[in-house]
Amino acid sequence: MKLTSLFNTLFLVASALASDIHITKNTDTVGNSEVNYGDVTVDSGITWNLVDAEYVHFHGDFDNEGDVYVTSDSASCAVNFKISGVNTKTTNSGQIVVSSGDSFTSPVFRIGGNTFENTGKIFFGGYGKTGLPIGEITSSSFHNNGLIALYQDKRNSGLVKLGAFLGSLTNDGTVCLKNQAFSQQGRILGTGCFDIGENGNVWIKSAALSITETQNFYFSSTGGSIRVEAVSAPQTFHVSNWGGDNVIGLSLPISEFGYSEDGILTVKCGLLPFYFDIGTGYDFNKMKQVTADFGTGIGTVINGGIVYQDDAPSSSRPSICATCEDLPSAPSL
């Protein structure tokens, strides 16, 4: 038997053995180190609080209209949260919070399946001191019209992956990155926002997989960066509030750059241009080419970045960019 067939067989068996659950009243699940269910439904106005749950795996459809908290403060094992299945659907119109304390292992937040739809709020928070935290939503059909917040207390070499590999995601909401790096998997559609917070990074790995100009990349803090692979097809990226030590750069040394009256920063690697719509009001004389440190896991490029040695002319948050809220605390028992 081939390994893939064996894996699929084992998965189907595990899915069949996992019972469904419907949460209709406020529920605390405490101290269950391993939680397995098939289909999961959480009603509106209801809180499901899973405390010290180190391994939580849902094998079927997941429909949340309430508040789901999955937390662990265990020093030995971080939270491992998965929603998986071949044709499963994840729908969230409520709030999901997955949070892991400082532990010897790395937290895992992974949503797969066929369909992902979010009109609510999703938070994934962990410590970046140990190992490589995994943050992935790789559903074939991906549509975010709410808030997805991906936070760490410290940047490490872990990468956040959203959307199926070489597929597409539609973001009409806000994705928040704090001490996290987003690694592009495919096309990015929609009119949403990526909020690049403290030490956050957006890594555009293949501009040949197009990103709509209506998608906004907003620098909300310091130490953020955007890196575009210099072997990609030229296109225009919409960037807001670029200034200070936030970096716009490429994967290879920049040969020249310029700024037009209509607010376009052009960055070239050889003859290949990349365009960043940063808006008007910048002083070209305050733009400086630097060695770009894109952070752990992505690396440094000599003469590969541009910084603006002042605040952005306009720091206002674009209307499409929702406020990136702090990681919520789980309810007290």
Task: Tell me about this structure.
It is a single chain. This protein has 333 residues and is mainly beta. It has one domain. 5% of the residues lie in helices and 46% in strands. Strands 2-5-8-11-14-17-20-23-25-27-31-30-29 form a 13-stranded mixed sheet, with no helix packed on it. Strands 3-6-9-12-15-18-21-24-26-28-33-32 form a 12-stranded mixed sheet, with no helix packed on it. Strand 29 and strand 30 form a beta hairpin. The N and C termini lie far apart (48 Å).
On the 0-100 scale, what is the average pLDDT? 91
| Uncertain spans | 1-16
Q: Strand order, main sheet: write it out.
A: 2-5-8-11-14-17-20-23-25-27-31-30-29
Give the overall shape, derived from the CA principal axes: elongated
% residues in beta strands = over 45%
Q: Indicate the structural class.
A: mainly beta
Q: Please give the alpha-carbon distance between the first and last residues.
A: 48 Å
Total helical elements: 1
- Count of discrete domains: 1
Question: Got a strand count?
Answer: 33
Helix content range of the residues, please?
A: under 10%
Biggest sheet overview: 13 strands, mixed
Question: What radius of gyration results from the CA coordinates?
Answer: 21 Å
